[in-house]
Specification:
Layout (H helix, E strand, L loop, with lengths): L4 H19 L39 E4 L14 H13 L1 H21 L5 E14 L9 E15 L6 H67 L5 H15 L2 H18 L22 E4 L2 H7 L1 H22 L4 E12 L11 E10 L7 H67 L5 H35 L31
Parallel strand pairs: 1-4
Antiparallel strand pairs: 2-3, 3-5, 5-6
Helix pairs in contact: 2-4, 3-4, 4-5, 4-6, 4-8, 4-10, 8-9, 9-10
């Protein structure tokens, strides 16, 4: 018994040592770029508080509520049945979303594959052999002898994760699962944004077609009036030709607008995952969309957590950081333990006899000694790959903040533009009415009327375009702040990845 004590003492020392080594990690601390604090505004010269009001269906004054989160999916703020129907259909049928879902499942399967390394690998085998051996090989005479051999075994192998390589490989795959999960959310957000903006473009084009058709009707009436005056000898034929040319010019604007509407409808069909010839696209008009009066705008710290593209970039950084640790751990030994137990017999009846039992215990350790600089190069490659993800994260964050800032200012300017265009339209309408009355009475010439026509027609189309732009930029802002994916029904929201972002210091800030 005394001879066995040293071995037990050795094991008593070895186990804590192995556990201590396994607790070590070669993964460096995650380094993230600096970001603005919540006191820093998105836009230059400060965040706007809201917009002015204007006449018309898209003239609502909007207020920006900073620090308030979206309380529903973003497109529902427009309160449009047609938009809701389009987005829901697209999210259900789009191949881009289906592709992102498949990529997520693929990453999850790979994560489970890498998780299996933490468990012992058990393998069973059974082999039956019938053979003839030459007696000459053993110095015998003619002929030989025949024999049967039945062998069965159960083997176990295990890789103790002493230096954490397995944990780092698994952490890498875990981060890639998070990346694909956020890529799925980004695909959904991008798709919904494209559907809504394309639908608004189509509605704007319909409004421009309707306005142009009304202008054509007006031009036809004026042409008829001009022809009557020509027949009465009040004007010359040049005036009739000029008015006919003005009518033709307006009619020529309709085919391109109709073609553009067709393109938008086909584009919507593609976004919905349907063939253009089979899709049933609901006809959306601008007056069926309600402009949100209050728009929640997330603070910078919240924006970092709820933008899917930022979270996806962060997951890529974590995966690359784990790869750096994995490359460092490759410099240290790899340990493998394996054991096997079984039985081998020349006759099946002896297979379970104790004399037929076989077993083995194997422990191996391998240590890189010289590989021509390969391990150092792999470590340098992993560090460079991490630097790539670091800069990609910076680019993504800067782009996100730029999108929010641009959308805030755009909405402010859109409202001012719409107010000015509405005023211009009202002035053009009055001027055209006065010109028509004066022209009919013979108090003014046709050139004055023609100038008023052109100004009114341009102002009418400009108002439609300004209204459409307010809807477009409202959608852009709602998408830029994350889109409210956390309110998607029937699914749990992805776990937010939080990291400590060093704040950006400005000149004059206390050290």
């Amino acid at each position: 018994m005394s001879s066995s004590l040293p071995s037990y003492r050795f094991l008593a020392l070895l186990v804590p040592l192995a556990l201590g080594l396994s607790a070590c990690s070669f993964e460096p601390k995650l380094r993230v770029p600096s970001t603005p604090g919540d006191h820093i505004p998105y836009a230059a010269s400060g965040n706007p508080k809201g917009t002015v009001s204007a006449a018309g269906v898209a003239g609502t004054a909007q207020k920006f509520v900073y620090g308030k989160a979206l309380d529903e999916e973003w497109w529902k703020l427009f309160h449009s049945r047609e938009i809701n129907e389009l987005v829901q259909t697209g999210l259900k049928n789009s191949p881009t979303v289906a592709q992102a879902q498949a990529q997520l499942r693929q990453a999850q399967a790979e994560e489970r594959v890498n998780a299996s390394i933490f468990y012992p690998q058990v393998t069973g085998s059974l082999q039956a052999t019938r053979a003839k051996a030459s007696s000459a090989a053993f110095g015998g005479g003619k002929g030989g002898f025949r024999y049967s051999l039945v062998t069965g075994s159960l083997g176990v192998s295990y890789y103790p994760d002493i230096f954490g390589v397995n944990r780092l490989v698994y952490k890498n795959s875990e981060a890639l699962v998070d990346y694909q999960r956020w890529e799925l959310e980004a695909a959904r957000l991008t798709l919904s944004g494209n559907i809504v903006t394309t639908a608004i473009d189509a509605a704007s084009t319909r409004a421009q077609i309707a306005a142009t058709q009304e202008i054509v009707v007006r031009e036809k009436k004026l042409l008829h009036l001009t022809q009557l005056q020509y027949q009465a000898g009040a004007i010359d034929d040049n005036t009739v030709v000029t008015q006919a040319s003005q009518l033709a010019s307006q009619e020529a604007k309709l085919p391109p607008l109709q073609q553009q509407l067709t393109v938008y409808d086909h584009q919507l069909a593609t976004l919905l995952g349907e063939f253009p010839g089979q899709a049933r696209i609901p006809e959306l008009h601008l007056d069926q969309i309600t402009l949100p009066e209050q728009i929640p705008v997330s603070l910078p710290s919240t924006l970092l957590k709820q933008r899917p593209d930022i979270q996806a970039a962060l997951a890529q950084m974590k995966a690359a950081n784990a790869t750096v640790g994995e490359a460092k751990a490759q410099f240290f030994p790899t340990v493998q333990l394996s054991a096997a137990i079984g039985s081998t017999a020349a006759h099946p009846g002896l297979f379970f006899d104790p004399v037929s039992s076989i077993w083995s215990l194997v422990g191996s350790l391998s240590q890189p000694i010289f590989e021509g600089g390969k391990l150092r190069a792999q470590e340098s490659e992993a560090k460079a790959a991490y630097e790539v993800t670091f800069q990609e994260y910076r680019t993504t964050v800067l782009g996100a903040f730029g999108q929010v800032a641009n959308a805030l200012r755009a909405l402010q300017r859109d409202a001012e533009t719409l107010r000015a265009q509405q005023a211009a339209l009202e002035a053009a309408r009055k001027a055209l009415h006065l010109s028509e009355v004066s022209y009919r009475s013979g108090a003014s010439d046709y050139l004055t009327l023609l100038t008023s026509e052109i100004q009114y027609n341009s102002a009418r189309i400009a108002v439609v375009q300004a209204e459409s732009q307010r809807y477009q930029d409202t959608a852009a802002l709602l998408v830029a702040i994350g889109g409210g994916w956390w309110h998607e029904p029937g699914k749990g929201a992805p776990k937010l990845q939080e990291v400590s972002h060093p704040p950006v210091k400005r000149s004059g800030d206390p050290q």
